[in-house]
Amino acid sequence: MSTEACGTTPDDTGQGGDPRMTRIGEGEPGRAPSVTDPEHDPEDWVLALSIEGPDHQHALRRLHDLLLRAARHQVGRMDRLLDGAGPDVADELTHQAADEAMVALLAKLHTFKGRSRFTTWAYKFGILQAATAVRSQMWRRRQVVLDDSHVTVDLGPSVEEYAETADLARAVRRAIDEALTPHQRRIMLALLVDEVPIDVLAERLGTTRNALYKTLHDARVRVRADLTAAGYLRAGTGKGNDR
Amino acid sequence: MTEQRPRAITRKVLRSLTQDSEPWLSCDDCFELLDEYVERRLADPGDVDTAMATHLEACPACAEEADSLQALLTSNE
Fold first, then answer.
1. Is the pLDDT of residue A152 over 50?
2. Chain B contacts of A153, Cβ < 8 Å?
């Protein structure tokens, strides 16, 4: 068995389309015409956010409003996880997430291809940042211990299929012990048994959510291959092969 | 420092440990496709995207963000 402490961290409107809105891009080339109504979104968000001028500032303000809305929505969904931290903390997390989402979105503005409404595309940045911020806040005083020690089986009250499920659980426990690398085992147990959020674990380990999900995916593939070889899952790939 | 929970394979954990996460889709790919995916699902609840659906079953963080985006769009309608 080995453990590794990772420490703690310190403390639609769619594309617009409003007829009252001056159409950006119809004016002088390279220069957007001015916005007449501050309550309406740019018709061409990418252009308005890309070209300096009065519409640029207006678009930035409207974009920040969108991101604030998304961040507030997300923090509201997760506020039970903030453990009574109070409205000030939630408000601070919301504004911080909106600001960080703004930076992240503007860095990727060139990748917006119009396959969804711009507002939907923008919202996902606010949601991601806010969810990450809440999970980080929730775990800020909790230590993450990477531990590959043995796990027990606790399936709760006995039910009709108990014996079969207990048999599978023991086989899974064995597969985790025998089929995984130590790194895969620690990551899988931290994420799925200890329920450390993936972005919190990534932050503590100095890696990325993507890298950890790949490790988890590879571990699942190995566990499922082992269970298939042992007769607990049906052979074959794809969906619906669970016994 | 926080208390360490007992490490046990419960029914919920068992489902998660044995989750089929093929076909492969990364969290970054999921984020890239999320806006289109949610709009398609709202327009057509029967829309099937196996790679996205698999990833969202296998990754609770991405699933929360997808559910949240869908709820936000629905609340705006």
1. yes
2. 8-9
